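Forwarding these from the shared drive since the link keeps breaking.
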Amino acid sequence: MAVRRVGARPRNLDNELPPLIPVNICSAHQQRIIVSAIFCVITAFKVYNYIHCNEAASLLGILTKWCILDASLFLGLYIFRIPWLQKSLWFWILCLILSLVVNATILQPRWIYDVGLTKYILDFLNSFYMIIRQQYIRLKGEKVRAVSKEEDILIDVVRYNSSHIVGKHSVRLLPYATAKLNPDDDKLCLQRSSSKKNPAIKLPILFNKTSPKSIRYSRLDFETGDRTMHDVYSKEIEQHRMTDVVHDGGYLEYVDIPVNQPGVYQLEEALDKDGMGIKIYKRDITIVYCPMANFILKSGPNLCIEDEIHVDLILQGVPPLNVIYERRINNYVTNMTIDSIGPEHYITPPIRSDQEAMTLASSGNYQWARDQTTEVQLNLSAEFDADYWLKVLQLQDVLNNTISYKNDQNPNVNVRFSVYTRPTASFESDTSIYVRPKQPAKIPLKLQGQEPWNVKIGYWLEEVTENDDDVNIMKPSEEFNITINDPETENTIRVQKPGMYRILSVSDSNCIGSVLAPSFKNVILAYPPTVKIDVIPIPADDCPGEVGVEVILSLTGTPPWHIEYSITSQNKEKKEYVKIEKSRHSMIIKPTASGQYEYRFFRLMDLIYREGVKIDHKFSQTVHPKPNAVFRDSTNRLLNGCVGSRIDLEVELAGTGPFTLIYEVVFNRRINAFTIADIRGSTYVLTSPPFENPGLYTVTLVKITDSKGCSQVLNSSDYVTINVKKDRPTAGFRHTHEIISFLEGSDVNLPLQLTGHAPWNISYRYHGDIEKVERESEIADPNSYLTVSEQGIYELLEVKDSFCYGRIIPEMKEVEARWLPRPSLRIAEGDAEPLPQKGHYRRRNVCEGSEDSVGLVMEGRAPWEIFYKIITSDEELTRHQTVGYTTTKIRLMTNKAGRHLYNFTSIADDVYTDPSPILLTLEQTVNAKPIAKFLSPDTIFHCVDVPFTNKDIKIQLDGVPPFSLTFEVAQESSNKMETLKIEEIYESIYNFHPSTRFAKIGNYTISLVHIVDSHGCSNTLQGPNNKISIQVTDVASIDRTFQQQIHCVGDLLIYKLQGMIPYNITREYNGEILHTISKTHTYTFGADKPGNMTITKVCHQGNQCCGSVSNLTEIIYDLPTAIVSEGKDIISDIREGDKTEIIINFIGTPPFEFTYTRSELLINEKKERKPGRVLETLTVLNIHQYQHSIFTSQQGVFQVTRVKDRYCEYPPTSGRR
């Protein structure tokens, strides 16, 4: 038998208790729904009770019922421990108190100020607290005062001290062990390395129910067929041991053996730590080099469309190999698979057919497992302008060793190349280019591709192209290359010679391209243009002389042509030009005035010679043109006029003056002819006769005669129509009998009444308070307005419409505009005293809290909006108030003492909506209320029948003395009330001596009711500082809440006290005198050590009212102790059929009895041993010795769970306190 000692593990205490109702019986969600339903029923019952109860006498009973329902709900939640609602006991007690306050407030809000009811509620809560606290101590345990010292202890720590049961004994039966190489059939392979030594991999061996001490394995070499042995000992095993695993009740252990050479590995032998052999599963594993892939790109990385792509895929591994690679063209992805890849005549491994699967057969020849290299050619055709990618995704050898390259960015398994579009080149057009002699020509190109381009040009002489039509079969006279880097700025080629040019080839930065049509361009030599001019005079028809010339032009050059010429007469030169599209052109020149004219053609331009060629061809002529007359303004032939007015018409004359002009005026079928002689000049203003009647008049030019007597009848279609209006325009103001009111600072529209034709021009005069100003305004609407911004009288002076001047209507020529008055504000007469400073007033002083207001008077148009500020010593408030009547009152702020200023800043009314600033300030002083409060403690404790002579009650007074105070003295039990009043108090701290002798037990209350200071300001006093309570009590007493006198360590000794808290308890423990203060009516001691405790005295009321105590002595015994295997954690390893001894020692008072369990022996992932489920439980009774032995041959963990001696047991039973 082997025995090992291991360190004891700490107990794992679960602080959160499970639900009282298991969730497999009723789920947590259903339990919460049930609680919600109960809460809704309780709430509905409360609402029903509240609605149907109106008598105050029954409110206390309803409050009691409501509190019982709430307490039942909260206690049930605490006991049932529902998930999500599992809270501490103190939480539910706080909820109960809160619900009590809410219930009382709902039923009768004034109850919270009722002293008697408050005491009743406090007594009820105190009793309920004591019951809950005792149950809490019984169930949960809390900190209580130790009997042996003046300290608080956690009773559960004393009661459940784990040192009373220590040690355990584990018995383990050693099973038969096995070892298995590569138990999970993992696929293992060696990584390739450029160094001589390959990286090692881990070869797993699984040991079942044992731990190895030594391991022997063999390796078969692929090349030589030799088998070598390798030993691994305990030191190396510990380095490569994995975490122990408990699996299906067995103990598993993994050991990883590092290997770095290919071969066939087999486990030969393994021994455990006792030197016993371990059963070996006969199996082997073949380890080879991991397969590897590599791309070799034989083509360049940059290709052109229609090129062939040549890529070699180099594979290394044990054939046959399977490869999956990805071919990507831009975003289009295709996965390709190639199976059974291997070199020529490679050796195929032997295959054995099983029912389960096809597996490699084990044979002595492993030549097939040698590492080999295979080359695969991948040829592609570049069909698109795109980026091509080839990437190896996965490679697998014959042993199913799989290498994934999906996330591998190694360039050896990723290859990328770009395919570009081939460039093109052509001329922009096939139109011939004309060029001047000895000047270069620019031929524009049209290129596509990626810059730079290299273009090859062929040139044929002009003589060759003229003699032979087929240039395609002729060799060019000359070839040259050009390079173009930027197609935007270098898209032309410059040539010097005329002839035929052809694009022979083109290439860009990536590819050789093709030549598109048009690819030919003719360059023709262009000579300066010439012109032949023929002149033919044009005679007059009926008059002597010539009226102009006809010029015939014959041109050579490249159209279009432009020819410039000048016409000179009387030393005045006029230049003209004409555009000509054809090589022969005729033009007519007819001057409008007579005289000697010289015509000179001086410049000729064509398409090539845009700057022009100088020519000099001139001739002279004497011109006598026929006279002519037309109205100058040919667009406006309809004019308007008024009766009695005249119209001026401007006429343009042509010919040799002076002229005689005949015109006609047609009105109502009457024609009046007028003749005007001796008109000199080229223009004349014709003034019509006055129009006497309204209607349409037509003025027509009839005939003109020049100085040579040559006359011409004028065109009858050249006439002017005049519409003569009957009425002249008028102007006046509308509503002249009213004064127009408007807001100061805004504009006002003065209504006008106009007749005539728009637009009108109005002149008016403004009569202000100081000045008179004349102004003008243009108006387009007859019912429009004259917009002004100043107040005063406005007078119309003159009106003119679009035709003529009119008149002002006398009775409508003036109107008056006035500003509306702005709103104002003042304080009502007698409400405040005016101060010397303008706009400042003072209101009489008032006491804090009293009502006060001031009257205001407004002027303007209702409603008004008043804006003002209230300024105190510590804050500034902004207020505004809307008023509908001319008088109002505003409430003054008297809730705060001090000097208050009311600054009225602005006012607005219904007309002036934007507030207008005003200056008005009111000040007032608010005197503070007097205050009185007790400085003594809230509660004064007093014993019954003791004179009240040595305790002063201090009162603090704030205000202006002298003060007057009113007191009330009340006894709660008798409802008697005594009122006291004290006058002329000048002190700020007043000592109050009650003369009442407190002869009865109970509570007395002294209240400060009322105070008045010298200003007459009074204050009704309320609040906690205005009351003190005097509690008169009897002597204190104490008694047990239990019967027995013999106790064990960990018991709770609970005593009930009578009197007034706090209590002073005196006790004697093993001869030592100790003192304790209790703030409740029950007090609990915790028995922390064995011994004798006697309570000797209990007092209250500041240790004054003491009571005598007798027969309160408690005897306390220690808890018994059981020690298993000397208190250690012992593990005994035995074989089947052997026995082991378990020794248990006791401490305490015989006879003893104990209970022990045998549990499953479990091993966790950390190889720690711990007990599992309990297999059996046994109890041994009547042991009179201090040592006991147990013999067993069964496996398990033996632990003592309970021990008991004559007086006590551990752990304590639930029935003990």
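-- next protein --
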Amino acid sequence: MAPSLTKWGAFVPLLLVNIVLLNHPGYASAGCPWNAKGLLKWSDSGTWKRGRIPRDNDEVLIESGKRVLLDTQPATLNNVTIAPGAVLVWGDVADLELNVEYLMVQGEFHIGASDCRFNKNAFIKLRGRYDSKYEVYNNRKFIAVAEGATIEIHGRKKTPWTRLAQTIKPLSDLPCAFLYDHSDREANPFAAERRDGMHVIVWREDGTLFDYNVFSPPYAADFGKFVASIPNGKVIGMFAFNSLGERSTDNFKALDNVIVNDLGGQMISKVRSKLDTYSLITRKGSKSSTVEHYKTDGQKEPEGEAFIRITDWNKGVDFQVAKSAATRDQYFRVMSTEAAYPKLELADDVIGWGDGDKIVIASTDFDWEQAEVREIINCRDCSRSQIRVNQAFENPHFGNITYNVDERAEVGLLSRNILIQGVMEDPCYAADGRSRMLCRRFGRDTFGGHVKILRGHKAAHIQGVELYHMGQQYIEGSYPLHFHMCQEVKGSWFRENSIHHSFSRCVTVHGTDNAEVTRNVCYDHLGHGYFLEDSVEQDNVFDGNLGLGSRFGTLLMSDSTREWCKEDYPKKDFSVNCEELATFWLTHPNNEIMNNAAAGGEGHGYMYVFANLPLTKSYKVQQYLGKVQNFSQRHYPIKSFYNNVAHSYKQSGVFMDSLISTGKLADEDGVPENGIIQTESLYDPRDPPGDPNGVRVWTKMERVTAYRNFQENLWIKGGNVNVTFSSVADGPEGFSGGTTGTDTGTSMEYSLFIGRTDNRGKASTYAQRVDTKSGEVVLKHEFDRSYPGNPWKTYTGVSIYQGPVYVKHSYFDQFYVDYWNDSWTEVLGERPVTYGAAVSFKKDSTYPTMTSQYTTNLTFGFCDSEKKHWLFFGNSSLYDWEDLDGTKAAFNVDKDGSLTGTPGVYIIRNHRFFTGPECTYHADWNMALCPYRYIKMEILGKDGNLGNDLKDKYPLIVRRDDVPRHPFDLMGEVRREWAMRTHSSYLVDFNNTVEGAMFPSEIKVYAYGVESQDVVRVGICLPLDTTDIDIRSDYPTVIRNYNHTTVNSLADLDADKNKNAFFHDKKNGILFFKIWSHHDRTNDSQQCSEGNCYAVKIYLNNGNLKKMRTCSEIRYPAFEDKRKTPRIPPIRRCPGGTGSPEGLGAIRWNEIKKIVHQEYDVPCITNLNFLGRKKVNDLGCFVEDTQQFVLPQDFLNAMTRDWCALRCYQKGYRYAGLTVGKTCQCGQSVTMTAEAKDLKGRGCDKACTGNDKQLCGSFNRINVLTTGLA
């Protein structure tokens, strides 16, 4: 008997309205469902009991056997339940809206069909609060599809998403975009006018400035005269800056009258508060052209355009007035229509995209919030792969292939003709602790609607639907689209839907196998986006989906911020177990993830992370079903991860690491269920899949494209994962990874790495504060590209970490050293620099590198030089580099010589502990090149200096016998591992200077990477009075019960061939032995041959462990290496010349349909208005005669002689006059009367308010200029 699961099919609501049972013919399942015979009309009173059509607030039950056609607008209902055997069909009627608290489908619900798409507009609105009384099993505000039920929703066919085929420039980078820009104070100094009142601008029909004025309260007749003087056809813009004064005054009424009666405005009378906003634009003489915007104080500005506008498509001019002061000084502007309404080149022909549809264009920079939403407008000259949108862009959006990397921005269609929408409350409401917390964190209602498909449903097909304000933060399990504990759903799917502004995820597959999630768009959502919930879901297909705008939520620790976790778990700090948000949250490898684009968010693009047990409700279900065994997830190969893209994430593009806590296992340290444990995942794929005893196999990630992710583009710390034919570019770290704690590694093959592409992102400014003798100095540098944080940060293609990582058959280009501002050098005391390198090392690693780490067959698009590095290692003097255990012991093997020109060279830290006379130091790389082989020795124990309390206190010091003055110590925070030269000898000393130092009673020595020809002699310093030593080993010789061979000297030990001899120098208290192996490794990822790792356990059965000492001054002859070792020559800068990316990387050129290489730009419009203008002349200073000059204009902050002359010229006046520094007037003649005599330049002594180097008259004095009118 299966465990009891929630079956909503048994639920029946209180019936306020009943359907009368009628005989009916069979329902036609093919074709258009509204044409089926026997459908009863909703609008027919005879359909309903007692002849009453459902009314507002009714609860409706469509009884079994009834088939109802929704043919009219229904009332606002509490809920609708379609009983088992009943059918509700949406009629072929435009703009119907079903407004309910929930819709329970136990029978069938149809809107269109797969072979008859519904092409009209349809709306389902789900309303209600988290405390609504209308609930089913604690579910509210939902559409549910129960056991035995069918849901068929098929919206109009529309292309879900595509990519740009041409780069979009931001408005700021279009030099010919503006014909007038009010914020350009050099061209328009009156932008400095900040007076309260009505700011009015007048433009000519071609967009050039005609006049500008500011009218402050009290409003005199000047405002009416000014408006009356404007010729018909001119475009007038008005913007209310701060207060318009007291509405009760007659002057305010005069303002209203002019705007209403002369200009056709209607909203001005609503303005009351100083903080109300009002703007208007109109064409003089055409009241029908008037557009206004009004917003009360405190009212939220709706999303969308920031300007009202009048567009003249014939002249190619767009006039704009700001809706609010949020645009700063840019209250008024005129743009060319090509700039105001950009035409986008798309990579594909798009179907169904039309006027009024909304799209989102993804960021192609490090900042995902550069994504922008626009509305499509009608475009008569667009092809099927072009669209025109309603406003210019604030950010660049790359639309090209650069250095063979496809970095084209995704363009997702948000609009669909069928809309399922959660109706939200405003303002945010709260009645309990959780709701108050949500209001505090998000500042809005986050209780949206949800669609839930339950186990045993007959069919679920949802396509072409827009889901808006869906999902619920208040409670888990309420998601926009959700297969809930269905177990098996082969044949059910979600296709080509748009989920945006979601409050909890986009698509969830929970306890369900064989679901299809195809070509959906997921934008701006809280929590993980595409979500495999319980680490049991298998054989699901996520194909061709777009996800972007992933924001942190609160439902799980993984998709919550660390700060929020501290608040949510006050008794214990679990913050380290939080903040691993992902657009694609992949908790089981056995799923198909292909052709998707993760296009930006606050966390990761794709995160592979598994649990050791099934999670949440699946735990008990799987105990019964037995399909998913405990600890089996780690042993499944990735079924498919193919042709996926990840960019613009604050963390990683693709991330594979860590474990999900089950909340049930002892080694999880009390971390609650669904917390993230920062430990090795132990991922180890096998054949048969899931079988821990199966054959270890490699699994693939193929054709991955990752770029401009803030941390790593790819972080793959998995087991035997081969990333192949992939493209990685434009990130601080391209690819890094390592083992999962088993004999596994990570491989990168046939891929290309580009340091910096033509996708520069948004220009950035870097500022650095510096303390100098004369005080603090702020240095600033302008970059023509964006950076992921600090520009001092080294950027790399491959960052070698713990390893082993095998990089093969791959190409690197555009990695170079950038000295970006030498003028800072004297102040800083160092030269500002960004180091770039094709191959480098993890800058803050605590894991020493595995000795099996190597690269081979690497090619480069540049030759290695002082400023272009194939490889580079920094030091702690450089930004972001730290001298930790891993960075101190970093190395790589150049297997075929493609890096150094010499095959088999070890590239290792330039420390005498590692190097020898045959090594060569390469200064540009800061690494030594050595001909030796190295193995890895690890020392473990349970007490003394090997106990946990001293693990990060440098408990051990190791010396090589031939260079004893150059010891090597490790902090030991994570691993106590030393890279050791074979055919050498070492002395291990316990550090007696650390607090609490003590000899351990048990010492375990392991060695990795040892081959049959290798040998390393090791001595361990012990207490002088220790005489009873028990030695045990499993390999290379089985040692038990003191059956090891004891020799009497180092010479005897060195001569031993049986590999089980030990020499205890009791005089000096040192135990010697040799590390070696009988076998060779048979594959790259083996740490040891078939698991046969050198292992010796040493037990000290007596001696004073607390009597610490050092053996640092005791000298022994070094192990004699009788082999001849050639000296490594200096590297060959380009041993094979530069390479080619041909055939490498993720791009498939045969699938690229269209690329426009020239960036989008707009042509300049020539202004012909001033071609006949003459030179402006200063006629002198006169006594002011008010009869000769008219049209006074006052600028308190912006008056200049140039502006006044231009203003009067544009109005057709021959003369301009300036008085009291701020007032401009115009006249047709200047008569030299006694009253207006020439003062020979004397008396005009007021500086112009917009230019204090000019004079603009005085009191009763006027500077007169000619305007240039012929």
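Residues 250-263 form the longest helix (14 residues). The longest strand covers residues 286-295.

- D.
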